[in-house]
Design brief:
alpha/beta; Metallo-beta-lactamase, Chain A; five-stranded mixed beta sheet; about 20% strand; globular; disordered N terminus
């Protein structure tokens, strides 16, 4: 009886610790994405709002963004384990926002290198205390400093990673969506993982430079890709056509804010009048539009000084 009880206890404990794999979609051979929902991060979704996933080579796997919570990171890791026997060698963080980095700790094992923009470590250090303070209230879980993992490999311009029969080209971008944006290009499938440099459905969010973002978009628009994976929204197969809604929104902000400033108007008027013709075109417009105007107004107000 005692043996049976111990076996039952062991089974129960193991079952309780089991991790359910995150649902993934195979976009193209070797490229897997979990699609986040266009929602604000909260205690219900626990930050599971961004597109995250992985790319499988013959030698190893590169995870691209780890999710908005330690639990999502663990579920993503389980999805990798259930998809391939090839080991994970890289975790690539595309920028500092919580929905992309809070799952990092699940992958912190021997042989795994974390990769990010050369400004990512500084961004994590700058925002870390705020992130740790706000996570319990906003997301419903507690983080420690051990969850905020800076890159082992910092990308200043470009970096090529060989996964075995698959070369990934990482590009560190000038300040755009943030000041630490990184994109990942898989030449084998002509897939660009653009992360939050591209939003579809979800309103674009400016946490860097409006002018810088538009400048990066102008460069990207001249290139050809078979698949583009945004940070939020569906996979794009008609590039650069699918870039145009974001370009239109950000260009509208640039043009109309400049006109307001030239006319001597202040921010208080700008946030009430600019860009509202696109209100019905985007999810989370009310939640982020005023912030975008505020960020862009501060940038443009001093551009001719």
């Amino acid at each position: 009886m005692k043996l049976l009880f111990l076996l039952a206890l062991l089974f129960t404990s193991t079952h309780a610790l089991a991790v359910t794999a995150l649902p993934m979609k195979k976009v193209v051979d070797g490229v897997y994405v979990h699609f986040g929902k266009p929602q604000l991060p909260d205690t219900k979704n626990q930050g599971e709002i961004a597109n995250i996933g992985f790319i499988v080579g013959q030698k190893c796997v590169a995870v691209i963004d780890s999710g908005g919570s330690p639990a999502e990171g663990a579920a993503l890791k389980q999805a990798v384990l259930e998809t391939t026997r090839v080991p994970i060698c890289y975790v690539i963080n595309t920028h500092v926002h919580p929905d992309h980095i809070y799952g990092n700790r699940a992958f912190q094992t021997a042989g795994v290198k974390f990769v990010g923009h050369h400004k990512l470590a500084r961004a994590i250090a700058t925002r870390g205390a705020y992130y740790l303070e706000k996570a319990p209230q906003q997301l419903g879980f507690t983080l420690t400093s051990a969850d905020l993992i800076a890159p082992d490999i910092a990308v200043k311009t470009t970096l090529k990673l060989d996964l075995g029969g698959r070369i990934l080209t990482l590009q560190a971008h000038p300040t755009a969506h943030t000041d630490n944006d990184l994109s990942v290009y898989d030449a084998k499938t002509q897939t660009l993982w653009l992360a939050d440099l591209l939003f579809t459905e979800h309103l674009p969010v400016i946490d860097g430079s409006l002018k810088g973002w538009l400048a990066e978009m102008a460069k990207l628009e001249q290139q050809t890709f078979r698949y583009v994976i945004p940070g939020h929204g569906n996979v794009v197969t008609d590039w650069p056509r699918s870039l145009q809604p974001q370009k239109h929104y950000l260009t509208t902000l640039l043009t109309e804010i400049r006109l307001q400033i030239k006319a001597g108007h202040f921010l208080e008027q700008a946030v009430k009048t600019i860009g509202y013709g696109q209100k019905n075109d985007w999810a989370l417009f009310e939640e982020f539009h005023r912030k975008n105007i505020t960020t862009a107004f501060a940038e443009l107000e001093w551009e001719n000084e």
